[in-house]
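User: Hey, quick favor. My workstation is busy. Could you predict this chain's structure for me?
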Amino acid sequence: MKFAYTRASRSLCSMTLHAVFIFMIMFFYFILLEISWFPLFLRLLVLVDTPNKATVSWLILFPIRLGAFLSIKSYHRTFWKK
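Assistant: No problem, here it is.
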């Protein structure tokens, strides 16, 4: 019984850390988006009349999204091994 309790508490702790980590990534991602990139992104969206400006806005936001995705994926691979 003690083993099951320890295993369950370890699993709960790991799930909590995972949730906190994802929340932190998403929080900082949205703060970054709102504070620094959002006015530029909005300006580019309003001014989109050529494919070049759409490509520029895509190139600005893609690295942020890719970095958030890869960090979540690496965390998942590291701490959620079976």
